[in-house]
Amino acid sequence: MKIALAQINPIIGDFIGNGNKIRAFALRAKNLSCDLVIFPELSVCGYPPRDLLERKSFIRACQKATQSLVDDILGIGVILGFVDQLAEAPGKPIANGAMLFEDGKILEVVHKRLLPTYDVFDESRYFSPGAKAEPFAYKGHNIGLTICEDAWNDLDLFPVQAYDWDPVQTLAEKKADLLINIAASPFHAGKRAIRGNIMAHLAKKYHLPCVYVNQVGGNDHLLFDGTSTAHTPGGTLAALAGEFEEDLVTFDTSTGQGDIHPVCENEVESLARALVVGVGDYVRKCGFSKVVVGLSGGIDSALTLAAAAKALGPENTLGVFMPSEYTSQQNFTDTKELADNLGCGYEIVPIMPIFEAFLTSLSSFCDKENFGVTEQNIQARARGTILMAYSNKTGAMVLSTGNKSEVAVGYCTLYGDMSGGLSVISDLPKDMVYAVSRYFNREREIIPESILTKAPSAELRPDQKDQDDLPPYEILDPILHAYIEDLKDPEEIVDMGYDRDVVEDIVRRVVRNEYKRRQAAPGLKLTSKAFGEGRRYPVAQKFKDQDGS
Amino acid sequence: MKIALAQINPIIGDFIGNGNKIRAFALRAKNLSCDLVIFPELSVCGYPPRDLLERKSFIRACQKATQSLVDDILGIGVILGFVDQLAEAPGKPIANGAMLFEDGKILEVVHKRLLPTYDVFDESRYFSPGAKAEPFAYKGHNIGLTICEDAWNDLDLFPVQAYDWDPVQTLAEKKADLLINIAASPFHAGKRAIRGNIMAHLAKKYHLPCVYVNQVGGNDHLLFDGTSTAHTPGGTLAALAGEFEEDLVTFDTSTGQGDIHPVCENEVESLARALVVGVGDYVRKCGFSKVVVGLSGGIDSALTLAAAAKALGPENTLGVFMPSEYTSQQNFTDTKELADNLGCGYEIVPIMPIFEAFLTSLSSFCDKENFGVTEQNIQARARGTILMAYSNKTGAMVLSTGNKSEVAVGYCTLYGDMSGGLSVISDLPKDMVYAVSRYFNREREIIPESILTKAPSAELRPDQKDQDDLPPYEILDPILHAYIEDLKDPEEIVDMGYDRDVVEDIVRRVVRNEYKRRQAAPGLKLTSKAFGEGRRYPVAQKFKDQDGS
User: Fold this and answer.
1) Which of B353, B392, B393 sits opposite A360 (nearest CB)?
2) pTM of the model
């Protein structure tokens, strides 16, 4: 059987657009003489639809769109992710479904059995789990069809079992001879290798061909890298779809041959592509075409601008430089050069008159000569207000520019530099900001070398440097990684060899600044644990996470 | 058996404070010669701890605190909500537990069986469900112990079953002769009556005394009203603890007698108390003691200030009036009178010099003579920046003042009037803002009558009135209620008798402004469906909810 892996980029709730995309990919598959075309999890409505699943009108629209695909796509078998409405209580009224249809007839329907409910996933909130795992016959095969998480409970790979059964094992025991998994598996750095291992392992373990079709593109904070695969029963990679792009590859179960398309060569390249796709999809799927970025002369705003220009075109990307008297002369040069290298729009709006108007109005307690956090924040908020004025006037979305290290410890101003519709690099630690920036410069200098080499500074007071206020990034970043991504206790981090006072200070800052992150723009998820939907901490609480007190 | 219902207000993660509170209430119960004292769900750590439950140090601290209570509280039986660590996979590594201990010995442990995973609840994210429901013998009783949701699946009351079994029914069938439910059941208007009905129904249905102990106080956006109850086997209310206050009431199973403490007389009084407790707890539990509120002269900021002054004392409450040239003279008088009535601090900071500095700097596209959204938003953001400067300088938390009707349709400025650490009335529709405001005036005029009677206006352009930009609140509010709380389709709302164009315009605004709400401060939950954690919609999406397109 010749199978097409149709790796599409749906838009949440765009039933007409998604339907047309599914029709077009099915036609491509037919023209390639495929017997079967496979689409990702929930591809009719896009993943994740979240609480739209609680609206009757959404479910109705989803059913209507699904039925029209069943009616329209003829002459090829289609496996498709959809929302299935369940006839009876108890439990949630819908299931995360996959159907096989052909020539107007629905031949099989399965429901996702393992419903991820952790990190960014809330599937138990919406769906009843499927209880059965039965292979079904189709064109000489006995297909074992699973949905995403269903394939993530193999005892060899996950010794700590999150669920009480393994649907893949059940399907293999029931003599499936072809495993198909449809997925919407979010990207993070390193995830592709994890998924590849799972699929290769399952193929080898059960000696079955294993086809995996993933969604691609960005939806809100989640990115999907695609990289759909087919593995032969020997565990050899036989088909591979592109990374962060819509794609269609074929795999023939009789010959074990398939298309191998190029993917990113390393993690830094993946992250660079992730940023570009993430910005482009978020902005466009929100109905915008243009963006505006506040440029400081630093690396964070430079990378944000570069990613945006690549995603949306330099003609749709405006950099606004808002100097104060604490701004170094170098930053005038660097920001202009950056915008010129990219071909972006560039404007200068000095903030001193506005800052001084604030200080005058607040002269009962503000003092330009005697600088504190108050005066620094006013500058950042004046800049935020200017950027939002550009947004209001031109219909461009403001992109905020804070990196993960800053956002973690609250080294950023709420309603100031945190303003914007999307926080592009808020899940990228400072060291990776440099690495990805250098990747952008791989062919020619886009981000001026001076930006890559100067000491980071917020320039909110005279001669300020990040390192006056924060531990050096080479210490801060690994401590944050251990605390946030690896969920290590402060004590364990001290045991890794870090100074106790530094660890406790950093943890205290992370905890104390939860309130800022609660009001942050959505940020593209790039690591295994991003701030936002996947990390839900109370704000009003007293647990300091300092040795259990 | 004489039972004490110990309705406490824990702070999330404050193991020492919560432990001391539990000890003190247990002592009070002992002094009243009670045989058993009962504390709410997860009272050792406070509810909801959210992702703190994923931190090993938090679980360890919780275990340590629990053990020290077991060791310390002697001479009385104690039922207590705690986090139980489970020995084995598969599944989540902890359970939402309740234990009975006495004189240093843990006598019984049960695990919550029904884990709410909808609206504000994420319990399947953290906990493995309990599978058993067995009564246990204690002091002549056979106790059926359940935790919150466990009692919310009775087929008579919930014909659409959310879960596949009813633990209360199982316990009754197994000859329990006393039902005890420990809970952390969030408040919304009307919820007390629902809970009362459930408990009375269960008591009558199974002819058993039924004791219910709820948490009280605010934690982040969630409020807990307490109003713990005991019902006799006949379904008569025999004990009732106070509303929105810590309390201890007793109930004697042999006599059926108990303490009945007063609770609020009506919904408006409950809402007023909710606001006061919500502001007070959030501010204090975040480690603040003072607040600052931007006063416009309108009803929303007036009610917010009044609630804050009541909660924190007028000496800790500052109102800042920030007039522009579009501010009416009446608002100078009204805001001053409001602050004087309350005894709060009051300051005036005119924004025109700041506004003009912005317009001058942005003169390439801003125009004071030709007003649009851009120029209006600049004013709102200048005010937000001023309030945040007060916050930075004085350590007071800014309270934002938008009501639910405004926040729903986006009639508010992100980083402007939406700035603040807590959004006090963002779940209160405009009609209820008036009703609760009049309640605050029940004994003497606190909110000046002029504020209660003037036409609402944002005063961001000459002669602006809300009704120029929005449908009248008496039309807007019921449509929003139908769409947001009752999840009605636009078509169903039209069928209720509303104009189609108006309904579609309002729904479009609600959908389009999801991005603003995503960055809003936590807002106190007062209705059955609040914005925030309990309502999770994608931002980047194309579903317009207009007849399935």
Assistant:
1) B353
2) 0.97
B253: helix, strand or coil: coil
Q: Does A530 touch chain B (CB under 8 A)?
A: no
- In total, the C-beta contacts within 8 angstroms joining chain A to chain B are 292
Residues of chain B positioned with their CB less than 8 A from the CB of A372:
392-393
Burial bucket for residue A435 (CB in 10 Å: 0-12, 13-18, 19+): middle
Residues 135-164 of A with CB under 8 A from B: 160-164
Residue B549 pLDDT class (50, 70, 90 cuts) = very low
**Lowest mean pLDDT, pick from A354-363, B179-188, B464-473:** B464-473
Please count the residues of chain A: 549
Q: Is the pLDDT assigned to residue A549 strictly greater than 70? A: no
Please answer yes or no on whether A11 and B541 come within 8 Å at the CB atom: yes
The interface residues of chain A toward chain B in range 256-315, judged by CB-CB distance below 8 A, are: 281-282, 285-286
Nearest to B282 by CA among B399, B390, B407, B416: B399
Q: By the CB < 8 Å criterion, does B515 face chain A? A: yes
Nearest chain B CA: its distance from A494 CA (Å): 14
Q: B363 CB near a chain A CB, below 8 Å?
A: no
Q: Which residue has the tokens 């995309």?
A: A21
Are the Cβ atoms of A58 and B89 closer than 8 angstroms? no
Residues of A involved in catalysis: 41, 112, 148
- In sequence order, what are the beta bridge partners of A106? A101
Nearest CA distance, B308 vs chain A (angstrom): 17
Q: Which two tokens stand for residue B136?
A: 């246990």
Structural domains of chain A, with CATH: 2-261 (3.60.110.10), 270-518 (3.40.50.620)
Where does B73-116 have alpha helices with state H?
A: none
CA distance A30 to A36: 8
Q: Which residues of B touch A60 (CB under 8 A)?
A: 548
Which residues of A, range 424-483, sit inside 8 Å of B by Cβ?
none
Phi, psi of B198 (to 5 degrees): -60, -50
Joined together, the tokens standing for residue A402 give: 């804070």
Say yes or no for a CB contact (<8 Å) between B11 and A56.
no
Tell me what ipTM this predicted complex has: 0.96
| Chain A residues in contact with B48 (beta carbon < 8 A) | 538
Tell me the pLDDT tens digit for each residue of A204-218. 999 999 999 999 999
Q: What DSSP element (H or E) covers B385?
A: helix B373-394
- Rounded Cα gap, residues A406 and A301, in angstroms: 13
pLDDT (tens digit per residue) in B496-523: 999 999 999 999 999 999 999 999 999 9
Residues of B in contact with A353 (CB under 8 A): 357, 360-361
DSSP state of A447: S
Output the CA angle A170-A171-A175, nearest 5 degrees: 115
Locate the chain B residue with the closest alpha carbon to A18.
B542
- Measured CA to CA, the distance from residue B110 to residue B122 in angstroms comes to 20
Query: Which sign, positive or negative, has the C-alpha torsion B195, B196, B199, B204?
Result: negative
Q: Please answer whether residues A36 and A79 qualify as being in contact, where contact means their C-beta atoms are separated by less than 8 angstroms.
A: yes
Q: Whole-angstrom Cα distance, residue B444 to residue B418?
A: 30
Is pLDDT larger for residue B487 or for residue B87? B487
From residue A144, alpha-carbon distances to A174, A180, A197, A282, A357 in Å are 9, 6, 19, 35, 69
For residue range A461-475, list pLDDT tens digits in order: 888 888 888 899 999
Nearest residue in chain B measured CA to CA from A278: B540
Res B461 pLDDT > 90: no
Do the beta carbons of residue A316 and residue A291 sit within 8 Å?
A: yes
Query: Which pairs with CB-CB distance under 8 Å and at least 24 residues apart come from A198-202?
Result: A198/A151, A198/A152, A198/A154, A198/A157, A199/A151, A199/A229, A199/A231, A200/A231, A200/A235, A200/A236, A200/A237, A201/A154, A201/A156, A201/A157, A201/A235, A202/A151, A202/A154, A202/A168, A202/A231
